[in-house]
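Final report, Chapter 2: Outcomes

The project's central promise was a pipeline that accepts a single protein chain and returns its three-dimensional structure in a standardized token representation, suitable for archiving and comparison. That pipeline is now operational. To close this chapter, we reproduce one record exactly as it appears in the project archive, with the input sequence first and the structure output second.
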Amino acid sequence: MNDGRLSSAVEATGLVRRIEAAGDFAAILRRGDPDRGALLLMIRSRGRHVGCLERMPAFDGGYRWHSVGPGESSTSDEIDDFLAKRARFDADSWVIELDIAEAERFIAETTLTG
């Protein structure tokens, strides 16, 4: 890659390591295209679904995280349906599950700072 952006594989691996280093849980549920695959975070706190974030291209050439998909009150079936549709729509995307203590704070900080 010549544009200076990290590949999806590098960013996914780095995110997993960062979450684990903080004492929380992270797992790559589906590997996508190693260079340009979209990153989708399924965020939980103590096993409870809190939200979903997707890394999307920004106008400045970088990326920003945006809330997408099922919200906090979603059922397991709704989450499973969302992931199945995403897999059909974008087979190159990555899905990473995070189970973190301060999920709401992580979402707020991640979407604010990109």
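Archive annotation: The helical segments are 8-21, 76-89, 103-113.
This record, like all others produced under the grant, will remain available to the consortium after the project formally closes.
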